[in-house]
Amino acid sequence: MSVSIGSQGDSVRYRSRLQQPETERHPDTHPLTWRLRDDGEVIWLEEYLRKDGYESVRRALADRDPQAIIATMKDANVGGRGGGGFSAGLKWSLTLQGEDIPRGYLICNADEMEPGTFKDRLLMEQQPHLLIEGMILGALANNSCFGYIFLRGEYVTAARVLKRAIEEARHAGWLGADINGSGFDFDIIVHTGAGRYICGEETALINSLEGKRANPRTKPPFPGQSGAWGKPSVVNNVETLCNAPGVILNGADWYQDLSGDSTDNGGTKLYGISGPVENPGLWELPMGTTGAEILDRAGGMRNGSELKTWLPGGASTGFLLPEHLDLPLDFNTVGKEGSRLGTGLMTMVPQEQSLVALLRNLEEFFARESCGWCTPCRDGLPWAAKLLRALELGQGETGDIELLEKLAADCGPTLTFCAHAPGAAMPLHTALKHFRHEFEQGISKPRIKAVEG
């Protein structure tokens, strides 16, 4: 498998690859991947049931205690695996519930358009029933009447697999009316998106789901109070929901213990790596695993290349240096170094790669994917891409670097309508911080001053 910056569609005959063999994965230590087969074939319902499938739902339906599910998820400290790291249990606790509150929706964000990210695809294409089971638990906790899997349109194989798995679950009584004779009704459909990165923002996703333009919404109200079609709605990432069955079946303490003493973040994480390494792919490892260990598992840099810098979790995270490889990859530690864990899929950049060219490529992507709702994002990102293009061609002007720094600052947190622009600004800001000399090499002429008077 070869992965560049940019997740890929089915058209290029690509599969997310788990590098860990079955002999290294166990139910007690690998809740997300222990069921997966070395041949990569789909785990359909019959096999899934033989491997403890739907046991957590069976138990939760018998208890019918939504608050107990929420409390367990909160105690387990399951941070959102879509990039934000916000506690899933805390998010669930904020959903409006009560006799006078209409039942709402549980929405799985399966858009996965973060460049360099391909972890959710693995789970959906090879283990769809784990996601379905997690969604049923989320529906029980949030009193949801219906579920949507908002799927990236290019994930054609995932769509086919998920639709068949949903039909299997319906036929077996795990979805639909009166699930497993419990009196609880819940069903799921797959909704394929039209290909917008902004749909990673939960309210833009909800707008798109409703058939509207994918612009973020003003918050408050938050989706937990008024989401899809005005009803309480919860949006969770694929990997986040896939953690729920193991947590409910084995308990919060078990989940916390999976990560050991190196981090306060609980559980395991699907870590991955792409770029010029010997064996790109995915591993399920304890939260807090270092970048050095993941790079070592990938066989190191390809053909003896020297590592210049790396992104810890997708294109909207900040660049780190080789000396940061020994840091635990968790939400807190990475944040203290001026970056984010993001999706936890590392992109390695070799010494011979121009950072100016790489940034130009990224900022053109972010500029193109802006919804255009607010000025810093709509106008600032194309401007940054234009400046970077000039620097890449050696046609930059004096003051361009300072202007890029200002544009990055103007797109910072709390200054834009959503997190799209801050995400685009982070790799730019950190690249200027660590590799300013490369940008300076692109300046060839003084800036022309406007004529006064």
Overview of this protein structure:
- This protein is α/β, with parallel strands linked by helices.
- The chain folds into 3 domains: 10-257, 3-Layer(aba) Sandwich (Rossmann fold), CATH 3.40.50; 268-350, Ubiquitin-like (UB roll) (Roll), CATH 3.10.20; 355-445, Up-down Bundle (de novo design (two linked rop proteins)).
- Helices cover 39% and strands 12% of the residues.
- The chain is built from 17 helices and 10 strands.
- The chain has helices at residues 45-50, 55-63, 66-76, 88-93, 119-126, 128-142, 156-171, 202-209, 238-250, 252-257, 291-297, 331-336, 355-369, 375-392, 400-410, 420-434, 436-440; strands at 104-110, 144-151, 187-192, 233-237, 268-274, 281-286, 307-311, 345-350, 396-397, 443-445.
- A 4-stranded parallel beta sheet has the order 3-2-1-4, sandwiched between helices.
- β2, α7 and β3 (187-192) form a beta-alpha-beta unit.
- The longest helix has 18 residues, at 375-392.
- Keywords: 4Fe-4S, Iron, Iron-sulfur, Metal-binding.
- Its cofactor is FMN.
- Residues 356-401 form the NADH-ubiquinone oxidoreductase 51kDa subunit iron-sulphur binding domain.
- Residues 1-32 are annotated as: Disordered.
- Residues 22-32 have a biased composition (Basic and acidic residues).
